[in-house]
UniProtKB/TrEMBL annotation:
Descriptive protein name: Uncharacterized protein
Region described as Disordered: 30-52
PROSITE patterns reported in the protein's UniProt record: PROKAR_LIPOPROTEIN
Origin species: Nocardioides baculatus
Superkingdom of the organism of origin: Bacteria
Amino acid sequence: MTYSRLAPALALVLSVTALAACGNEGDTNAVDPAASGEPSSTAAPTPVPEGQVRTRGLVTVLDAGEGPELCLGAIAESYPPQCGGPALVDFEFGDVGAEKASGVTWGQYNVTGTYDGTTFTVTDSIPAALYDAMAEPETGGLEPACDDATTTDADMASPEDMDATLAAAAALPSYATAWLSNGTISVAVTEDPEGAEAELRKTWGGLLCVTTVEKTDADLNEVNQELQAALGEQLLTSGSTSPDSLDATVVFDDGSIQDWADTTYGDGLVRISSALEPVS
């Protein structure tokens, strides 16, 4: 399943539906967000940076005829691309890196400046061709759920066996999610991991890990829907790339949105990252 504003997952996570922050549709309620079992009534904060900030790595700047915009969220895979974001002031595409087609100009840049919550005033920009990508940390995939996975029957480890096992996992009464990594199938359930493993061994003899989690995909989806309603246009992307957690990217967080998420949903359930970071 794909989502228009969902960032690429760090690993293949199966059956954890991630609703994108593309609007507020219908009434939403969090599932067991905090120890009290009730969602917080405190509104989400809307922090604005006091000093200069910069984009995390390269982002797309696009001008469709009404001035350049800083595309911090997802980008439609069209030609020319389509995206939107805060208006940019004092920005020039320069002599390298920009493309033009059908009246649209765009390119990838690392941008520094000030942001007032609506407009980004540029003090410096580096096109992709001149940007030191080696300075950016690498992100890895999701590891297997255990470090002692074993093979019970090498003759039951074909792609067809894998497909059958993933289907069997999704049919488990306590199924939460599943993912593939390093040739291992990892399956998370909310209860009875031994029974789940016994069932999955009927179709899979390869490397297998079964672990327990607290939240199902339905639980995470409900929290995700409340996130999109509470954060509104601040929320750029949201979804699950690992069990028992949601990853959400906002335009800017000084730590107050993360504090709000921890208070509202419980520590560690929602992990907030900021598309803009303060300049040291």
